[in-house]
Amino acid sequence: MISPTATLLISCPDQRGLVAKIANFIYANGGNIIQADQHTDFTAGLFLTRIEWQLDGFNLPRDLIAPAFNAIAQPLQAKWELHFSDTVQRIAIWVSRQDHCLFDLIWRQRAKEFAAQIPVIISNHPDLKVVAEQFDIDYHHIPIIKENKQEQEAKQLELLQQYKIDLVVLAKYMQIVSGEFIVKFPQIINIHHSFLPAFVGANPYHKAFERGVKIIGATSHYVTDHLDAGPIIEQDVVRVSHRDEVEDLIRKGKDLERVVLARAVRLHLQNRVLVYGNKTVVFE
Amino acid sequence: MISPTATLLISCPDQRGLVAKIANFIYANGGNIIQADQHTDFTAGLFLTRIEWQLDGFNLPRDLIAPAFNAIAQPLQAKWELHFSDTVQRIAIWVSRQDHCLFDLIWRQRAKEFAAQIPVIISNHPDLKVVAEQFDIDYHHIPIIKENKQEQEAKQLELLQQYKIDLVVLAKYMQIVSGEFIVKFPQIINIHHSFLPAFVGANPYHKAFERGVKIIGATSHYVTDHLDAGPIIEQDVVRVSHRDEVEDLIRKGKDLERVVLARAVRLHLQNRVLVYGNKTVVFE
Amino acid sequence: MISPTATLLISCPDQRGLVAKIANFIYANGGNIIQADQHTDFTAGLFLTRIEWQLDGFNLPRDLIAPAFNAIAQPLQAKWELHFSDTVQRIAIWVSRQDHCLFDLIWRQRAKEFAAQIPVIISNHPDLKVVAEQFDIDYHHIPIIKENKQEQEAKQLELLQQYKIDLVVLAKYMQIVSGEFIVKFPQIINIHHSFLPAFVGANPYHKAFERGVKIIGATSHYVTDHLDAGPIIEQDVVRVSHRDEVEDLIRKGKDLERVVLARAVRLHLQNRVLVYGNKTVVFE
Amino acid sequence: MISPTATLLISCPDQRGLVAKIANFIYANGGNIIQADQHTDFTAGLFLTRIEWQLDGFNLPRDLIAPAFNAIAQPLQAKWELHFSDTVQRIAIWVSRQDHCLFDLIWRQRAKEFAAQIPVIISNHPDLKVVAEQFDIDYHHIPIIKENKQEQEAKQLELLQQYKIDLVVLAKYMQIVSGEFIVKFPQIINIHHSFLPAFVGANPYHKAFERGVKIIGATSHYVTDHLDAGPIIEQDVVRVSHRDEVEDLIRKGKDLERVVLARAVRLHLQNRVLVYGNKTVVFE
């Protein structure tokens, strides 16, 4: 519907005139802002904003926008990212044996809910190769045991480079990614099958069943080297009862997992998520 | 926590430079924007925004802000409202016989969830006088029948003027307010006990029971002269089952009604609701 | 986990001793009840129950259960159905052009969430043949226009008989099924893309957008010859805002539609839905 | 609507014929069952049931029901409770300084949502005496410090006996009740202001804010001597965003807390909650 847009995600120490300065930069170059949203974290003294404008009629060529904006950002001590809406990001989906999130992500990409490509699926198991073939996506089986983790992660990293991957989505990968890996490739979104921080770690549905909770949840977050403790992007829940066995929790949870993960991936791809500290601002 | 602020709610035909012009006006006068949110309705070609800034350090005295901003707004063909956060609005609560919304609104006002005064309660029944007395609020019993509606509405209007009322909240008033009245006093928020537009009109819980729905809802909206068809501010729902009799729907619905109405009143009092056409933009 | 079970769904005029009589019938024949649930509709004077027991150790052979229970049911003027949990029902999925519910139903059947077979897909468009082929399911393209509706429905009916279909699932079929058809094949579940009875008929998302609702929904119901007015099995909702264009409502709605339809189909397949009048009792 | 009823809550080792035996006991004495629900915990090998029947026309006098049923229950090794719907339970509400749950419980009791009396409020602070007076309820201020906890709990226990209390509701009491106290008076329902087991202990809203969750919750549970780890009766959640400061979480949480606590108290008063192990079966 809308022609290509540029988006700035900015965080900087709060001060007077920030909105004016940023808006002036866009207006002075002929840009039409279509969405501007902002948040001030008073505790941290931080101003956080997302501004999106139409490139149609914008006088600066794309490659000059970043240097031009840098001149404004530096005196403000701003951290910022610039994105273009017609950049097609490349996703690697990592899976283990469960196929529900994988199917869902592929379906959404085919249905154009995601402006992204999915050139490769990586797994520590061979089980889902058949799905990859069904949708004509490359599949790499990289089995991981304690002893070979380091070298297998090196292979995974190589694949990410080879496939020019922008984002790794852990679609029920069920393995811990090492801190060293994350340093080298930090853009990783995970789906955890509980309402974090309840039930961190393995077997959250079994733990939820044991505890007798009346609601279960799923959480999508960026991966950090603290297990299940990265910045949360999206969460959702569903009601359960004493009638639900562990297998019912797992089944109901699957519906949550795929929707929560898909929402998080979509928000990320639309450059609507700004991470600061261990939190996110989600500009919806 | 925050010193007094000013808020502009603006709608105008979309064009380049709107954010810049408005932000510049505030920055040029030394204001610090603490929240700016904006929405473009592409179908209507409308730009809608809410900007809130600290008055502390703002160079324009309060009474000059409106004329100064008018000079900017007129060439943009903008419709706009200016509000100050320390203005204490005065609410008249209109009730019939049910007390749950009334109690809830009074409790929230006492708990400082609303920055407002509630000097008067108006009712077509005498039943809730006792509540008014308990909380030391004036109570006016104005019984209404078909034959005296016009003259009773005149009395109601007189009371609103006498008590310097800014907002009427129909907290289960169960009577239709005439179009003539609304023209004279348009700031009226109602709670309807269904998920509109399902079950317009009387007895929505009975109708919901008849239809066998699995979810019931409540809707808070501005009152217009089309029954239950005004701009919706807030809605919420709760799950029901075949076990729920009509009286259970009514009981569960009460919990919805008071929360939905309270949220709508709070959003209105914080000047977060911008009405255009028959819709609202809610800047949360 | 559990060996095969038998399930009785019973509705009859309320009277003393119903639970005892039914439970005695099962106990006397050595059955172990694993779930018994019951509901009394006092307005209608109706007793409605679902009883499930293990066939393992039950002394009556399967083909004698119905006649034996009939002797008990007749004096009670009971309407009843008997089902066995290892009966694999056969589903025909009817679609138009949208694939999300179709994909979802097939995925769930493959994932064993449904104990059912899906031997055939019927559509008035050729678009989704490719999906049918991908999953090796027969696909019949039966285009329908006003002039040929009667003869095309005859063809559809023939296919249902040929494929020994127990249940038709309208997975976004977008066509009205005639009253004559429903009489001949009454087991039809539909998904409607609104929170019924709001937005009956075509284009509910456009209507929801026009009305400015803050929540949208989806409804799964049995099909009757009153449009979108059949007994509701399941509903769910999702929050929307002024930021959501019609296309966002459609996208968010798809996630609702597939989950709501899947829940309804699963409940039906597990013989948990008892229809009476224009309502359902859902024994969860 | 319905004449007085008797309710049996039963748990016993699973075996054939349980439903029949219990239903026969009621039928043989002329009782009309109006609700029967049952659950089997296959892992624990436990049968759990709730049966409610009309006393009108029941041949056994009330005081003979328990001994008569005991003759049936003993050979089944059943644990059971017998309740009558017209027994008016007596509640002591314990509070600290916050009034929202207190107001809500009182309002519901006045509105007849609870068939109970509230003769006394106990608090470690004097603040809410004014509310007690407003509604003509006795108020006992029992300040607690580390050094006097034991003797103050003795006073509290004495008050419970004096007022013939059946149930203590901790309506934001914010104090830990000792294990010794719980042994002497085990019927205690608490509201915890988080989605347990996330954020056990003090200041859950601050912890939720720190963690950056997108949803907050409230949990009502029976009190045991493990902090915030007792059997959960009811939970609910509400969505939050980066815009919500700690004070917003607290405000939004209050709406949850009062509804979740009220639901739990109501379910308990209607004898719909069966505790086994550290879990509940809630027969809704």
Give a structural overview.
Chains A, B, C, D: It catalyses: (6R)-10-formyltetrahydrofolate + H2O = (6S)-5,6,7,8-tetrahydrofolate + formate + H(+). Chains A, B, C, D: This is Formyltetrahydrofolate deformylase. Chains A, B, C, D: Belongs to the PurU family. The structure is a homotetramer of 284-residue chains. Chain A has 284 residues and is of the alpha/beta class. Chain A folds into two domains: 5-84, Alpha-Beta Plaits; 89-282, 3-Layer(aba) Sandwich (Rossmann fold). Chain A is built from eight helices and 13 strands. Chain A has helices at residues 18-28, 62-73, 100-110, 129-134, 149-162, 179-184, 204-211, 246-269, and strands at residues 5-13, 32-41, 46-54, 79-84, 89-95, 116-123, 138-141, 167-170, 188-192, 215-222, 232-239, 273-276, 279-282. In chain A, strands 7-6-5-8-9-10-11 form a seven-stranded mixed β-sheet. Chain A has a four-stranded antiparallel β-sheet with strand order 2-3-1-4, with helices on one face. Chain A has a two-stranded antiparallel ribbon with strand order 12-13. In chain A, helix 3 (100-110) packs parallel to helix 8. The mean pLDDT of chain A is 95.
